[in-house]
Amino acid sequence: MKKFINNYENMIDEYLKGFVALHNDKVERKEERVVIRKGAPVEGKVGIITGGGSGHDPFLIGSIGKGMVDAVAIGNIFAAPGVQICYDTIKAADSGKGVLVCIGNYSGDLMNFGIAVDMLREEGKDIEVIIMNDDVASAPKDKKDNRRGIAGEIIMFKTMGAMADLGFELKALKKAGDEIIYNTRSLGVAHTACIMPSSGKPSFKIGDDEMEIGIGHHGEPGIKRVKMMSADETTDFIMEKILEDLPFKNNDEVAVLLNGLGSTALSEMYIVFNRAKDILKSKGIKVYRSYIGEYITSMEMGGFSITLTKLDKDTKKFIDHPCDAVHFVQV
Predict the structure, then answer these.
(1) Residues 218 and 203: beta-carbon distance below 8 Å
(2) How far is it, in rounded angstroms, from Cα 170 to Cα 285?
(3) pLDDT tier at 190 (50, 70, 90 boundaries)?
(4) How far is 37 from 326, CA to CA, in rounded Å?
(5) 327 tagged catalytic
């Protein structure tokens, strides 16, 4: 294993110290595993919080800032944060207008955040939860509640953060968030695994000439393992699966998020985006806004995911709203 760390036991603490030191104009460390927007809770607005395992940076902590996330609960590599961390994170974002918990559909996160939410509701706190399940590969459409949350969570943070910034109430955020989830679909592919710092071993095994379509951000099995295909062939397969799942149709307007998983060159992602754009154009689907980069990684995994979100006049307004998060700035 080749990683620039000191030892695994101190890895999370050390990287959080470095992150907060570098970005101390935007964030601060509230508790050992709770990082908040500087000055949170923000008076007069709903608090937006999230959390989950480390190893996906700049996801989660990179989303902290004005117009996006107010506080993040941080677990170990690919592991859910504990109940107390979740509890402290929710409290840290509560200004009295309620808190929206935005998480992916993973059992550990659901359990620990669920317990923390129940505890705080018993204390009289107003809390709603939305659970992203945009990964079309992880369960069939008739069982979409079992699907994982992947890069679509970024769109959730962006729209919910905008609504909170604009002064919408908690119930309105919950309703709109559920609609965003319904209208968002993602699918990813990987050709190399990441190396787990706890063991020094790959998160999964794959042949040098193979790739896996639908693989999860933690190395969960996908839907199809095949020989390496070209960028266009891969994009064609992914887009077909995404487009048919909602389904997206002629005259729809969409946000496109093309996400690198850690070690995929930006030049490769531009090639993929070019093909995806052409496919959407051929189907009469308008790209309203697009994002390309590393938003939710799996350390150094080689691969990418494509996310489409169908937009309406309201969600376009929220997508367009300025934000100033650590790793997501939009003016």
Answers:
(1) yes
(2) 32
(3) very high
(4) 10
(5) no
Supply angle C-alpha 93, 99, 65, rounded to 5: 45
Q: Residue 38 burial (CB < 10 Å; 0-12/13-18/19+)?
A: middle
Q: Which two tokens stand for residue 46?
A: 């709903």
Measured between alpha carbons, how far is 161 from 6 in angstroms, rounded to an integer?
35
CA proximity to 237, closest of 224, 246, 220, 247 = 224
3-state secondary structure of 122: helix
Q: Is 23 a catalytic residue?
A: no
Active-site hit among 56, 191, 217, 327: 56
Which residue is it, tokens 């989303």? 63
Give me 91's structure tokens: 């409290």
- Compute CA distances 313 → 78, 164, 330, whole Å: 36, 17, 19
Average pLDDT over residues 210-218: 95
Q: What is the pLDDT of residues 315-327, one digit of tens each?
A: 999 999 999 999 9
φ/ψ (deg, to 5) at 75: -100, 180
Pairing status of strand 286-293 against strand 253-260: parallel
Residue 1 has pLDDT above 80, yes or no: no
Mean pLDDT of the region 216-240: 95
Contact indicator for 328, 248 with CB cutoff of 8 Å: no
What pairing do the DSSP bridges indicate for beta strands 27-31 and 65-66?
unpaired
| Host H or E run for residue 163 | helix 152-165
Q: Which of 23, 191, 217, 218 is labelled catalytic?
A: 218
Strand 224-227 to 286-293 pairing: unpaired
Q: pTM for the whole thing?
A: 0.97
Strands of 153-285 (E only): list them: 184-192, 210-213, 224-227, 253-260
How would DSSP label each residue in 260-315?
A: E-BS--HHHHHHHHHHHHHHHHHTT-EEEEEEEE-SS--TTBEEEEEEEEEE-HHH
d(CA 316, CA 320): 6
